[in-house]
């Protein structure tokens, strides 16, 4: 369970009984961040708007907010304010599973506005972001939410990294490519997933997303051909037809987006605010706004690395048996994992008798024998499932997997974001926790805080990751340097790094069964520090890893959770340098796009000890042969400056161990 240590200061409470629209001018209320640099202005007339500024520079112009219910109460429409209250909070969150930081300062001011009819709106101002949410406390036990107004009126034609979506029914794997453009370029018919990054006119970075999403659909944003964006939501699916074993064709939608309790809090609408690009690498706004852990026993939750089969197509070699989805192949994976101290292997799609029969293994898989073999070698087993057959018999399936001794489940192909699917995520997390199973959500929307409430949810896909190298040329170093600033700011991402066949831009080719990556070997290794995922894959096949034991050994020493994270350098889509601490060791990672770069990086975050610094960096010929790397070591202290040099599409990774 999360530990929360802190204090609450009541700043002021005021009571009203006046309809704001009865007054000659809007009634305004202000809230400042603790450092007084960020300000929220709320205006109430016959509607409610909020605006955001930073040091008197407008970031968000007055923007309309409202809920639309099948109820005489319409939150945000003709509001009558009864009471306002401002509180200051200063907490210390101690994370159960540490993603960016083990300890997170949760310092914010909160304005609560209570309105006639039984609803409230909360506004929060942090030093690194703002948020608001509705709360209803209606007499009706159940209500229909017909829609929600959540406008974002920006101060100009802001630059935007637009997470492109195409399906008008919001059926998607949410694996965004980010179109670098301006917001006026997008029409009312074009929508985007979240998080979305915009650059304010003063250069400040604004990352729009949501948090604490339960029993409600995901938020999407639509263009307007202007400086504004408008909210859109998937409607409740009433009828559909199956498409093969993992898709649907919607045949009937409801006229509402949710049916829910009349007494509840709604998701936070969030904007992370960062002066510099690199601040996005350490922003924790989504986590801070999310429900604390509800699990009291978490000792069984063990993050770590996974030897994964699917990306490499079980294409192992140098063995005396036929490779494939069979017991012998997975014993080979277990032997490899054990040799390098990897705590898990994954049995991906194909291990069950059929993709919809999740209770019986394939005739070529001795699942109990494999799990027992793994246990004897200190290696746990994760099992893949399709979401819908899991949904139909969840308790029975998870009880069986727990009885076998499995450690976790990878749930796949949800590819939806409406209310039912959001509820499925939480039901999966809660049932898995009941049976002490960890969870990896694939074919998933972005993190919205479920992993804080249920820390057994270790990671999410919702990212256009390495798997796409099997069929496209989209996973470029530029894309890889966009993800940490946008998608990763929402929460952990299962990108699945670790490609051992690496290629320059000129030499890259698509090979489904023996895939490669763009960029250098060091670029891939650096991902293990740069990319946050408490469950981190080794995506290539064990035969390739065994062939290069030096590189594999280096990767195996990198942890998957972090006590502290410091952003050193960063520019969206171009480069990033980051330092992370786990225990008494530090890890430094650098990645670059198709431009070679170098940084002189001081190490003032180190303590007074000497450190042995072991580096895996681009080899002298990496610009010609991308797999070329070199290993080196030196002694450094807090007064040292490190020369980080990266070739085109390159990387740099260091492990710093205190010298006793």
UniProtKB/TrEMBL annotation:
Glycosyl-hydrolase 97 C-terminal oligomerisation domain mapped to chain residues: 561-656
Glycosyl-hydrolase 97 N-terminal domain residues: 31-292
Signal peptide: none
TM stretches of this protein: none
UniProt entry keywords in alphabetical sequence: Calcium, Glycosidase, Hydrolase
Family matches, as Pfam families: GH97_C (PF14509), GH97_N (PF14508), Glyco_hydro_97 (PF10566)
Methyltransferase recorded as keyword: no
Domain Glycosyl-hydrolase 97 catalytic span(s) in chain numbering: 310-463
GO molecular function term, any single one: hydrolase activity, acting on glycosyl bonds
Cofactor: Ca(2+)
Keyword DNA-binding: no
PANTHER family per record: GLUCAN 1,4-ALPHA-GLUCOSIDASE SUSB-RELATED, RETAINING ALPHA-GALACTOSIDASE
Assembly, per entry: Monomer.
Record's protein name: Alpha-glucosidase
Organism the protein comes from: Pedobacter insulae
Organism lineage string: Bacteria, Pseudomonadati, Bacteroidota, Sphingobacteriia, Sphingobacteriales
